[in-house]
Specification:
four-stranded antiparallel sheet; alpha/beta; 10 strands; Rossmann fold
Length: 241
């Protein structure tokens, strides 16, 4: 269970989110216009940005967890891969997800390497294990990010725009993987893609005017979409089913 209590976040004196209180007992999709604060909300949950208020995860405030404890609890998958060494191989990159579990004085264990390999196999990219990140396609890079998060074995996985800039085929692959992960993890999805959110099937937190409103299935009704986005909806999105 994640609880946000009276959250306010400001950057350079500009208020992004104001007095947000929200209970997240299970899966959630976060939608809203560009610049509305969707990614900021996710980063607040992970304690990656400064904010006023409290984030409570499993009855403990997020800042009270050590870095390793937080890594075992939460994985944040950014929209874009940004690493210090783009020539690191895929298997090395995924193995980094095991850092929170290793003894800092020792190399990664046989178990760590086995788990990383199983994550690559689960996502059907084990054949790319010796390829550098630099050589991967956009779709393969997104799968690499997911594989690293899975190797981290955190209970909560936050996806930030996972299908941005992907073609329909790769978008469908990523969507199906996210859907399957709901069986084992709490999934929080930040997206502009209404079809993806509908396919995932979680309640929707809509960010608008510094506030967050929670919706269930009624969010995907045309009239509600038109009200929230202030645009005429006739048809939208890619079907993932």
């Amino acid at each position: 269970m994640i609880k946000l209590k009276n959250i306010t976040c400001r950057f350079s004196k500009k208020t992004i989110l104001e007095d947000i209180s929200l209970d997240i007992p299970s899966h959630l999709s976060i939608l809203g216009a560009n610049g509305s604060g969707k990614s900021t909300l996710a980063k607040i949950i992970c304690n990656l940005v400064d904010f006023d208020g409290a984030v409570v995860v499993n009855d403990k405030e997020i800042h009270e967890y050590t870095l390793k404890e937080r890594a075992k609890l939460l994985s944040y998958i950014p929209a874009k891969l940004d690493v210090y060494d783009s020539f690191i191989t895929l298997d090395e990159f995924v193995l980094l997800g095991r850092y929170a579990h290793k003894n800092s004085l020792l190399d990664y264990s046989f178990t760590d390497k086995k788990i990383a390999k199983e994550c690559l196999e689960f996502l059907d990219i084990e054949h790319l294990s010796s390829n550098t990140l630099h050589s991967l396609s956009s779709g393969e890079t997104q799968l690499a990010l997911i594989a690293q998060a899975l190797s981290q074995q955190s209970k909560i996985i936050i996806f930030d725009e996972p299908t941005a800039n992907l073609d329909p085929r790769n978008s469908k692959i990523i969507a199906q993987h996210i859907k399957s992960l709901q069986e084992y993890h709490q999934v929080i999805l930040i997206t502009h893609d209404i079809a993806l959110a509908a396919f995932i099937g979680a309640p929707v937190a809509f960010v608008k005017n510094k506030k967050v409103s929670l919706y269930a299935k009624e969010f995907f009704e045309k009239e509600k979409l038109q009200e929230l986005y202030e645009v005429n909806f006739e048809k939208f999105g890619v079907q993932f089913a």
